[in-house]
């Protein structure tokens, strides 16, 4: 039996193209052979997401990548924080996977307690809220923030690796972490080196999400349209292109 | 001693103008004499917010009303769900109050248990998440959704009153509610009639938020810029007007 | 339109008169012009509340100040811990606000995480239970206790300021607090100096409660008499003056 | 080896003497042979506790029964709600057991889920808060309130039995209770008849607390004086007899 | 690139062979082409797991299937309840996936709220504890138990389908479920028919777990050996075959 | 009145006989005069329980000690973790008490916050799960693990005392513990010396459980057979002696 092709569109939440390339490289390296990966970035939104403001301005552009899509079988939201994921699940029946939730599920299957190691100190609250939203706060040993901006993680891989090693070691030694979740899509590709340095599983969220998306497609599952994730009601939406109007959605 | 003028800008989360007028009427009727209320609606976004999709598309327009503002002392986000409130707190140091949180604080001071009575059944999850975000889930007797769309609440006040009376009575009799929070800005102005019908306190969220905003201004408090709510980092934000760029913010 | 007069009675939970004066000064300085503030202390009870024992002995005297009152529009319980507040809400339909809950609501509108800085180390459990009762434990970065007794906070303002500065800085640097709630009525009046020293919002609980009380009166709200906060049943109450008997209550 | 005598003072929280007699009868029937039980009622306070107001007015009188005691080895607070128990633990090092907590511990050792069946509907919130304070909310199937006043439970045993049977059956059939905790000291003595009618364990809280008190004395344990339950600070306490002043405490 | 072979051993928790066959059929139908599935049952333990007693007696036999294994890349514990999963993670570094946790992760990616529909009424507490252990209780609309024994689910597929349809409909209509998790490995293979009848996603836990196991192997992840899931300490284990002794483990 | 004899069988969870003797000594020293204590160990299972693997292999042997028993009135599971306790409650109606739960109930009646001081670092997760299962996590100041194996606690009492003193002091000074629960049956007998060293109540779990078992027998209570703890269903159980088959149970 030959597997049908599974097309997954990964949407980098940031408009920074080098990160899209990096995300794509990571995803390509873990996909199953019959999976096709396309990685895109929004037309609109911030170069990088490092605040609630950035996140909210990114969401319309992220959703647009789903609205305009015609041939993907599943979508991955590639920004730790899973921005706009509930809306994404409303506008399509195809599976939508967030990299944050995916990485936490994987961590939960590998370790009794794990920590999230991530970017700037200011995102602590965002990250904690994301963990809380999945319901897995009791399994989270800590959130370790760093001095790394999102773009730093792309531009200086050596320094990034060092900062993540230090933060990971603190999480392991002081907080009791037994695995590490990388809390930013920009950190994709560093997981193997970090794993060697830290001696515990290190989870790349993009890779985790690709696996979850492949899984959902393979199981032939679609998002429940029963209540919460029904298609949005039809109504006037001012200042957005016509494809944002619910009556124009491909279903 | 004469009080200084306190200018509060209320931002209807919906782009539906009649609701702006209704919200304004409610707010004017409860404000202190030295308060000036201006009620606006976003330039962009959905006519009404009834899904996560609607909410996320509304947020950039809501934030713009804060970004472009020069003379208000505080802001009220007038959509139950407090859309984008964390971002609003990042882009200004002036107090920002959400009508959902404000109404829950008021309810908590009046009753041991309260219910939220609101619009379409599909918003149950959104409303529960909002209650959870304030931390007050343990005090919430129930969320009672109805067949009312947001625009229904504006257009047929008599039917709305009847539907809310029925839902409120169920909340009181079956769920143990001892007060009712109206879970939609469009329901503003019905609280007194409902209170007479139901025999328990009924809280108009817009009115509650006006009071909280007046309180914060009167206390001369500003949002903490210590960490989470710092100004957004400066960076390129594609596809948004230049006033959305953090380096152009009035501070 | 001229506002009606709003009369708020603030009940210092302690029988220490200098604290009553201090509380009154703070309250007068933040009230709206049409508000009248009267600050009283119980006839019976401990000089200061620093244990569960103190708190329980204070409550009958606190409640008496409500029972005997004829002309106030709202009551503020001015002891962090909100002693007897559920009973206070039973014996009157007029709004009753606790300074602890009020300060936490204000903190929640200004900061993602806050700490409570308070008196003697032994009150940690009392303070944590108070935060838990409001439901806001998840937003509380820490409770920082000190070597200050309640009366210390009144008698040596300079030393108090120094101790609070140290505790506040620890809360900010080690616990992630982004705002500070002063966890004792005796600390009223120090909030501005502390705010300058600490660089984050510092919330005086008395001031916060005055604003909440003004808000509830302005909204014309009364406590729900539906179930939990109904008037107490009529019955014999031994060893208390006749005004404590429910059948003698003014309603 | 002959056991030393263990003297337990049970303090009926209500000033109603017939209930004291009833409590005493229940306690005598379950005590070990070397235990001496003395059951008393406060000199001051309400005839019965059915509201927060009643509870707070009862506490000073309850505490007085501990303060004036010289020869008991342990104390039982015999009012479901364990009024003033934290203060009781401050003013003596001898073990203090509340009947509510004791009954929940016993229930937890007998059943996966249990319900509390209790008096007037208005006490629901009080009872839920008591369950929450022990931390056992997740094991509580429901709180079933009734039309029974506290005094009803004493005065009409047949009707009480019928009402409790009905409420217990509802808890079992509709809420999934597998055991029933009787949520009022006045219900002591009905547990065996109810157990026969309901077919599940029915726990008399007074009996449970006698066993816990015997246990703590037998283990030679005393309350921790490390921090929270230290003796109250010495200070002036207005309007209370001199034995209430901490400096006069027997230790 | 051709995928390496991934060998997954599925361990039916029950010793009932027809269920092993059924589980295997389901697993084979969803696996990726390069996955090899072997489904086994323990040599010892109960025919079916319907109580804590059954579960605990099943665990040594389940663990033996891992201990004696030499060539699998991952293990699936095929009994809803994930019996012994923490121990399984101690005795091998290869990924171990429980069907309960896997099904909940899948449900969480498809629906805002879901219910578990399962066997005999007596397992309610076991099922609730399993949901709690994953941390996802807040997303669980309800647990719906039925009159079906585990063996019933194998032996009468038509009746099983009818009972599950009824329970599923109740979960959807009365409890707000938007997806259904089948809470027993014996129900594998009914998910498509049920999905058509119920109109919401129905998740077969075995299929979900196969996907999770494939994912973990594909990501080249192993269980953290940092602390909790280290190999068991070497010591005498009485009454068990020598392969159960930790010093004989293949690593 | 002379008390009837109460026979309690204590089941050491470990197959290490010296620990059985130690447990028995502790139990004999706290029992009431009419109590008869028999302490046994399983025929099968690990010498000591220090991992989930050990725990699960111990449970069948522990349960066998209940199944084969004919004359005990209650059972105590003497391994902190209460292994298999739900199953134990299914197979007999006689009360079953776990030493972990018993020690936490006792601690809760003596202190506002307590810590568990226990063996190897790897058991932290097991201990935290046990505390969580009782529902008392909010009262737990910390879990302090040590370098002590279970057998160490038996074999070198002096070193054990020193290690526990150090860990206890850290719990008190750094975590805010006001009492200490000894988290291993092997630590029985050290509680008095530790109490003198630490200055806070130290609870021996075995002693606590003896008291709880005496209490339940004295109250004439049996485990609820309503639903969760019903006798196991009759079915084939492969590889276990015939007395393990439910149809052979004495009832």
From TrEMBL, chains A, B, C, D, E, F:
Species per Swiss-Prot/TrEMBL record: Leptothoe spongobia TAU-MAC 1115
PANTHER family the record matches: PROTEIN DCG1
The organism's place on the tree of life at top rank: Bacteria
Name the record gives this protein: Hydantoin racemase
Catalytic reaction list: D-5-benzylhydantoin = L-5-benzylhydantoin; a D-5-monosubstituted hydantoin = a L-5-monosubstituted hydantoin
Example GO molecular function: amino-acid racemase activity
Record-listed E.C. numbers: 5.1.99.5
Family, similarity comment: Belongs to the HyuE racemase family.
Top-level enzyme category: isomerase
Pfam families listed in its UniProt record: Asp_Glu_race
